[in-house]
Amino acid sequence: MNIINKYVWLVETIYRAHKILYEEINRKWLDDEDFSEGVELPLRTFHKWRIAVEEMFGLIIENEKRGEYRYYIENEDVITKGGMRSWLLNTISTSNLLLENRSLSDRILLEDVPSGREHLQSIIDAMKKNRLIHFTYYNYWRDDYRRHCVEPYCVKIFRQRWYMVGKMLGANAVLVYSLDRMSELRKSERTFKYPDDFDGQCFFKDCYGIMAGDGTNVEHVVLKVSAGQANYLRDLPLHSSQRETEQNDEYSIFELNIRPTFDFQQEILWNGEDVEVLKPIWLRKEIAGKIKRMWNKYKTD
């Protein structure tokens, strides 16, 4: 972990500078005594780290090969566009930052992700070896516990919860399971063939969160957003397809191609009066119906 932290330090140093000389990297390395302990970064070690960074994170550290011969990250978009390696880089980077500032631990407040502690490692191990897993699962709607035997395909984190996508043995549907509702999980000795046509990114491509495969079609959604709230949607889009097609002092219009599933509708409601659904009409009526039912619960007060 210590050497991985150093790789991340190198990436961050170059990424922040955009282009930087080796001598400047070495100087920053010496300034960061928590890592360097006052010992210089040899050029040979620097090049070994460059290769390791490419293998681990898919980031290519190149040299200008002219002028000042500065180093830069050739494919910076890997960091900005997301994905597992980008998430890993950001996670380790944040861990480094927190470790360096342990004295402020009571002033740095974090969110808990309890669902990943108990079962995530076992599920990932089963995914590596294409082994079936057995577990007991609690269903909120039925209020019961049932045993499942599942082919684990992929895992996804959403709103501080880990989820697993898999196919139940003997069923045709690919389902999504929440790890915090699993118990008595064990890996089977039986193996399965991972389907060639399954792609986790494609499975969730048109979704807002983790609700996929529930039969909701992709829709062209048009939202009218107050000028103040529009700033938040620009910084943190609801979906990769989001486009801002109109902007004025009072509101902005955002358009998306997405499956308006229950979790997406919850997100619309979370924004309150600042977000209005213009299209499709059925979704506008659905949101209006939810608001009316909410109002009926409060109007007698």
Features:
301 residues; four-stranded antiparallel sheet; Alpha-Beta Plaits; 40% helix; 11 helices; 26% strand; alpha+beta
Short description:
The chain is of the alpha+beta class.
Overview of this structure, please?
The protein contains eleven helices and eleven strands. It has 301 residues and is of the alpha+beta class. It folds into three domains: 2-106; 115-203; 219-298, Alpha-Beta Plaits. The strands form three sheets. It has a five-stranded antiparallel sheet with strand order 6-5-4-3-7. β5 and β6 (174-178) form a beta hairpin. α1 crosses α4 (43-57). The longest helix is centred in the last third of the chain and has 18 residues, at 281-298. The N and C termini lie far apart (57 Å).
Number of strands: 11
Helix run count: 11
Order of helices and strands: HHHHEEHHHEEEEEHEHEEHEH
Low-confidence stretches: none
The total tally of domains equals 3
Mean pLDDT: 87
Distance between the termini: 57 Å
Layout of helices and strands, plus pairs?
Layout: H1 2-17, H2 22-31, H3 33-36, H4 43-57, E1 61-63, E2 71-73, H5 77-80, H6 84-100, H7 115-129, E3 131-139, E4 144-158, E5 161-168, E6 174-178, E7 182-191, H8 200-203, E8 219-226, H9 227-235, E9 243-247, E10 251-258, H10 262-270, E11 275-279, H11 281-298
Antiparallel strand pairs: 1-2, 3-4, 3-7, 4-5, 5-6, 8-10, 8-11, 9-10
Helix pairs in contact: 1-4, 1-6
